[in-house]
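User: Run a structure prediction on this.
Assistant: Running it now.
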Amino acid sequence: MTITVGDKLPSATLIKVTESGPDAVQTDEYFKGRKIALFSVPGAFTPTCSARHLPSFLEKIDELKAKGIDEVACTAVNDAFVMGAWAKQAGAEGKVTMLSDGNGAFARALGLDADFAKFGMGTRSQRYAMVVDDGVVKQLNVEQPGEFKVSSAEYMLERL
């Protein structure tokens, strides 16, 4: 079953890279008491993700925060080291929190996993963006396969 607006996020463990190494992040704690713009990409360093999706949130981060977003986070079914390298390469360090869903457990729990085997990528996350307020989904924008229309920061801002 796919998560919908009004649902509480499932409990899961994500990983972020810190200066001292990988750090486990429990979704129940991470999203508690805060309003977070969370977006997911099929893969770090992939074309649309690198050229359009992550840059849209980097460009609009101040506007999102002005509309009440406490933090912007990105998740992907990549390991934490890849997410950390992507953040560094994209200039996202200290701006967008990169959360690794290395085994895809969070994507599966959301019902937003997708089969990218035909691209040699295995099971990944669908491309989406959501606003989560105190652990509850307030806005959810899931892309159709191969598209980039409703998961951008611009689209999210228009609906805040």
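The CA atoms of residues 25 and 113 lie 20 Å apart.
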